[in-house]
Amino acid sequence: MASETTRVSGLAVRYATALHDLAEESKAVDAVAADLKALQDMLADSEDLRRFIASPVMSRGDHGKGILALAERIDAAPVTRNFLGLVARKGRLSALPGMILAFQRHLARRRGEMTARVITARPLTDTQSASLAARLKQVVGNEVAIESQVDPGLLGGMVVRLGSRMVDNSLRSRLQRLSLSMKGVG
């Protein structure tokens, strides 16, 4: 799956905006957001699922059946089911991760939330994520949504990007700084 810190395509933004508008009309924004989060978690956990949605060999019909089975599994709202069916029929299922991310960003902006992109060596627990969001809220004064990503190469610590600010408190960067100072550079 693409890195969550990468830009989202224009196609994904258009689909996400349309989905948000439909969800608002149906008064199902929170349900759709929960459905998309569940799908995002499934995609993060399953290489097979990521290959399935990205497969150009699968027919649109097979993509549709597969994604609707997943929607059934998570008991998705009707708006979400219809959206996923449309995406599969249009042959755009490979762009679904970007659509989910674009929807989440759009929703956060509409709610006045800021999004912090957090990279850690191991997945954050729900408690750690909530604690980090609360601390960031104290700093910026707005609600903060956490988009987390795992990079085992960090060894420990975390990298937090919030707007134009970045704090790199990873063990990897600390070791790099130590190495440079021992060489007399920097």
From TrEMBL:
<dbReference type="Pfam" id="PF00213">
    <property type="entry name" value="OSCP"/>
</dbReference>
<comment type="function">
    <text>F(1)F(0) ATP synthase produces ATP from ADP in the presence of a proton or sodium gradient. F-type ATPases consist of two structural domains, F(1) containing the extramembraneous catalytic core and F(0) containing the membrane proton channel, linked together by a central stalk and a peripheral stalk. During catalysis, ATP synthesis in the catalytic domain of F(1) is coupled via a rotary mechanism of the central stalk subunits to proton translocation.</text>
</comment>
<keyword id="KW-0406">Ion transport</keyword>
<keyword id="KW-0375">Hydrogen ion transport</keyword>
<keyword id="KW-0813">Transport</keyword>
<keyword id="KW-0472">Membrane</keyword>
<keyword id="KW-0066">ATP synthesis</keyword>
<comment type="function">
    <text>This protein is part of the stalk that links CF(0) to CF(1). It either transmits conformational changes from CF(0) to CF(1) or is implicated in proton conduction.</text>
</comment>
<dbReference type="InterPro" id="IPR000711">
    <property type="entry name" value="ATPase_OSCP/dsu"/>
</dbReference>
<protein>
    <recommendedName>
        <fullName>ATP synthase subunit delta</fullName>
    </recommendedName>
</protein>
<dbReference type="GO" id="GO:0046933">
    <property type="term" value="F:proton-transporting ATP synthase activity, rotational mechanism"/>
</dbReference>
<keyword id="KW-0139">CF(1)</keyword>
<dbReference type="GO" id="GO:0005886">
    <property type="term" value="C:plasma membrane"/>
</dbReference>
<keyword id="KW-1003">Cell membrane</keyword>
<dbReference type="GO" id="GO:0045259">
    <property type="term" value="C:proton-transporting ATP synthase complex"/>
</dbReference>
<dbReference type="InterPro" id="IPR026015">
    <property type="entry name" value="ATP_synth_OSCP/delta_N_sf"/>
</dbReference>
<comment type="similarity">
    <text>Belongs to the ATPase delta chain family.</text>
</comment>
